[in-house]
Amino acid sequence: MLETIRRLSPYLDGIRWRWTAGLVSAMLAGLVALSIPQVIQQLVNSVLHPGGSPADVWSAVWLMAGLGIAEGLLIFGRRFFILPPAAGVENRARVALFTRLQRLPVSFHDSWPSGQLLSRSVGDLSLLRRWIAFGTVMFVVSIVTIVVGIILLLNSSWILGLIYLAGAVPIMWRSFYFRNDFRSASRLSQDQAGDLATTVEESVHGIRVLKAFGRGGEALEGFRGQADTLRGTEVRKATVLSQFIALIVALPETVIGISLAAGVYLVATGELTVGALAGFFATTAVLAGPVESVGQLMGMSLSAKTAIDRHFEVMDTAVDIADPIADPAAGAGADSSAGSGSASSLAFEGVGFRYPDAPAESEPILRDVTLRLEPGETMALVGLTGSGKSTLVQMVPRLYDATSGRVLVGGVDVRDYALLDLRRTVSIAFEDATLFSDSIRNNVLLGAPAEIAGPDAADPQTAQDLLDLALDTAQAQFAYSMPEGVDTQIGEEGLSLSGGQRQRIALARAIAAQPEILVLDDPLSALDVRTEEMVTQRLRTVLAGTTTLIVAHRPSTVALADRVAVLHDGAIQDVGTHAELLGRSAGYRFIISSFEEDKSIESVMDSGVITGMMPVVAVDEASGSGSGSSSGTAHGHGSEGGRP
Ligand SMILES: Nc1ncnc2c1ncn2[C@@H]1O[C@H](COP(=O)(O)OP(=O)(O)OP(=O)(O)O)[C@@H](O)[C@H]1O
């Protein structure tokens, strides 16, 4: 336990003296409580006898009242001193955990369920706060009260005191087993609470799927099963705790009964005064509270230890994608090119990759990938599904690191860059467009350089110009016709937008980053062919000097690229222009023919032959550019293209 507390020391800044002051207050309150029976003893022995003066009685009354008020003030002092810094510890630990989660690589997040992280950052840390604010102090106070109380008991009568102490022996023996049982139940319940949080998170996230497939009942059954298991564990935990508390309450009560018989005998034989006997029993009554709370506090401390252990399991996970530390020249050298405005080359040299959680005997996802993009070049990456395209492109901003070979940006290994500089140089947009519950403006400018869009940016107009350019290039002008324009809040994860709208905002975010290298992992898949073509053409004009690697699933995208690389089964099969590859690569022709099928369907739809509805949709997705049909305003987005 001491080791666990020592680990908390980085979070304990500024708490030590307040905690000590709170502890002193709590101890004094405990001592005041203990002194009350002593006053009763004095009262019985020296005041309550024939001929005792009323003035003595009044003095005793005032003394008792004074002690009661003092105890109340001291209890207030304990809370006053400890509660704010304990909340500070919780806050520091929570911020540290969040910071760690941001730094940990994507592979960590692949393998950790979100509910486990949620329960660690919320439930566990409030348990920690309650333990620091209440558990630690009351534990020390209870132990001190019990020790002082036992000294007083021995002082009242050493025989009765020893009888009382004898009850502690079985408790200490039992506490050993209690600790082990309670600790394992506590760990299990906190882990199961994390699993339950994961299930809630997944069900809420996937609510559309569950509803659409009518699987709410099954989801509920699964949830109920988990909740029942957790309830079982909680009951087991409570049973272990209550059995222990029953023992530590029942045993002292039993020995008090024995003490009573022995005490009456001692008074009868004149070996003990009535006052000492009254003081003895008043002291045991005061001790009853601390003795009982020791059981509760032991349970709380064990749960807090589990919470701290769970916290440090995340904090101790190695950040294996980190800034280079050894040779600053390597990183700083690369850094000097960042932001200079010159385009960078991008190269993969013998890159191999295997996911960390892949079975040891499995084939690597990527094998000896060697590819070079010249500065300003646009290269399309094509391949059948599952060939490793997304995996490959995620290595450029170091979302994953190659397990063999290297990725070079501007001729420098990406592992030699300061991460922030690398991620300023490279910008990425994914097929699965993740937006945040914020305005469109903030979502887009999230990617922009801090000097342009940060809180200390000199000229707000520059940020506005960048926003306009990014939205325009991504064909996301629909943003201007939303209720509050670009300041419209887009709801949790942007789910109030259509898939195509979300993708265009995510693309605008990548453009607003003004990167030297732009990586697009099929971010236009939800767009109709026309809009996608317009976006691709605009990208080529606006980002003329930007090196672009684009995972493509459309012939139009492929045709606009300078060169195309074919990835097959984790290896580069061929690289060339679209025309060259069509001529020489059967694999490429096969991939393109599967694209062409999609395109032909879309073309037929687009011409309105099938439903006559499509032109309206085309206008909608084309952001009102008029490319679909002049009549297309049925969805109320006909003005998407027109900015205010
Ligand atoms: N986080 C992960 N952990 C383990 N394996 C993964 C992970 N992500 C992807 N894979 C596996 O890696 C392989 C390549 O996946 P990847 O997403 O790179 O393919 P892709 O070519 O982009 O496919 P698509 O065109 O369907 O998007 C797949 O077999 C997939 O199962």
TrEMBL record:
The chain crosses the membrane at residues 21-40, 60-77, 131-152, 158-177, 244-266. Keywords: ATP-binding, Membrane, Nucleotide-binding, Transmembrane, Transmembrane helix. Residues 621-636 have a biased composition (Low complexity). It is found in: Cell membrane. Its main location: membrane. SUPFAM superfamilies: ABC transporter transmembrane region, P-loop containing nucleoside triphosphate hydrolases. InterPro entries: AAA+_ATPase, ABC1_TM_dom, ABC1_TM_sf, ABC_transporter-like_ATP-bd, ABC_transporter-like_CS, P-loop_NTPase, Type_1_exporter. Residues 620-644 are annotated as: Disordered. One of its GO terms (molecular function) is ATP binding. Residues 346-594 form the ABC transporter domain. PROSITE patterns: ABC_TM1F (PS50929), ABC_TRANSPORTER_1 (PS00211), ABC_TRANSPORTER_2 (PS50893). Residues 21-303 form the ABC transmembrane type-1 domain. It is a multi-pass membrane protein. PANTHER family: ATP-BINDING CASSETTE SUB-FAMILY B MEMBER 10, MITOCHONDRIAL, ATP-DEPENDENT PERMEASE MDL1, MITOCHONDRIAL. This is ABC transporter ATP-binding protein.
